[in-house]
């Protein structure tokens, strides 16, 4: 599909939420030829936290959208390392040396704020294709009139749009407006996050984990909640630690990020037998904050009329596959493709229904796989390929999530197949591709 379809027209798009997902979809829709306004509830559009993973299935869209990735100061990952809980010795290593050659793009690890700034610059910049998006702050969404496509804000103002995208996170207001009330429960796991300055760790005579350029995990092999995840970011200058333990040892489900830092003793207490090196890192940790973990059942739908959901608003997931940001980026890419001149025929409602059909199965599969990987690191993408490790075991070889399934996925082919069905047309590549995957991968997936 190369030439513009009959009926294509530029749209006025409203995006509720100015985080990573909101900025990503603003870029995608801008590149597709539409005018975009982003409404942020706070007095600035920012992100909290530290590290965020962007594997090849996310990085490819950054390149396609001509994002200046260097502005995000990423660490390009060279491996995934699972370490013994007590000794720190490597138990399982997944080598990423041939990753870019295999998949066409690197595996980036960003500092969340830097990644957000990078995306915001691209969405709003005067340069490059499309009309620069507009950012409007201090505009919390109150309601949406789906008859007229009008967003009503808590400050009394309103705005009309042809398409409205709810990118307002796990506590999404837009999700509730379209009639979704999540079935959710607190995770049996709690998490505290902290940051460690690499320079300070070295000054204390500790191991310089930044040299590994790796996502590193302690524990996760024994069917227990105890697990430490280390993500280097800011070019290796910052080490971002996510520390999981049973909720019975600390319940943070009703606390929000951004409050007073938790004491370092609270971070260390759950881990009496932890590898001394990483425990010494945590002892100099700063910005110790709780991360609320909720398990959401998959949603039955993510669109209604001219409104759709994206990212955590559409499919909140546990963090154990490191795919949350990539799924939001993929959502954005799907909307950008579907509303681009070669694909969009002017029918907004049908196009959003195709978006739902394309995105829900893939995101729901990752959501389920992330829950499995919480207790068994062998289910995690990458480690799920290390079948020769002595303690390797997964629930079902045929159902595990693999790096091939994630990175061989071709969204254009998925969209073309679903669009063909929606338009009662044959799909020419049905013998080779099924739902964006080579047929052999789909059959085993």
TrEMBL record:
Listed InterPro entries: FAD-bd, FAD-dep_Monooxygenase_BioMet, FAD/NAD-bd_sf
Matches recorded under SUPFAM superfamilies: FAD-linked reductases, C-terminal domain, FAD/NAD(P)-binding domain
Pfam families cross-referenced by the UniProt entry: FAD_binding_3, NAD_binding_8
Keywords: FAD, Flavoprotein, Monooxygenase, Oxidoreductase
Origin superkingdom: Eukaryota
Family per record: Belongs to the paxM FAD-dependent monooxygenase family.
This protein's name: FAD-binding domain-containing protein
Organism: Aureobasidium pullulans
Lineage: Eukaryota, Fungi, Dikarya, Ascomycota, Pezizomycotina
